[in-house]
Amino acid sequence: MPEKNIDFGKFGARGIKGTDAVVRQLDQLAGGIVTPVTVKRGLMARLHYLTRTDHSRAAARDAGLTVTDRTLKAWLDGGRQPSRANLERIDAAYRQVRRQNVARHLLTRLNAAGGTRVEIHPLNQSQVARPLQRVVEYRTMNIRRWDRIVDAWATGDHQGLDDAWTLDVLPDLGSQWGQYEYVTNIGFAA
What is the pTM of this model? Predict the structure, then answer.
C-alpha cells in the first residue's frame, strides 16, 4: 500500500492509528456504562447487563466470560469479589456484547440520509523539526456505506476494520490519503 507508515513517530509526530480513532468514536456513539468496572456500581451494572437473559448469558460466554453460575451468583450477591483478570474479562465481554446489541441501530443511524459526515483531524507535528514537517490539512468527507466498518467493529475484527477503513474509505481522500493513516482525532456528525 502506498505511503504505509512503517516507523510512525520516528521524528516526533504524535497521533493514533485512524482505525483506533474510529473504534473510539463508534464506542462513544454506542453509549453504555461509564462507571469503571473496578467500582462496585460499574461491576454490578455490567454483571446485570450480561446476565439478565439467557441470550445475554450466552453472548457473554461467547465473548469470553466463562465462569460458573455459582461464581456469577456470588459476585452478584456481593459474597465474592472478582479478581483483576476476571474484572478485565467482564469489561471486555460487556463491550463486545454491547457492540453486538447496538450494531444494527448504529448502522441504520450512520447510513441514514445518504451517509455520515466524518471529520479527520491530522496528526500532531508540533514536536517534529521544522524541515521535516509536512502540510497535512483538516479534512471532511461523507461516508455513504458503513456496513463493513460497523460489522468489523461489532465482531471485534480489528484487521477487517483496518482494511475497511484504509482500503475503502481513506482512498476517497485522493492521492494523499496515506497521510491520514495516523490522526489526532476522527469525529462523526451522527
Answer: 0.85
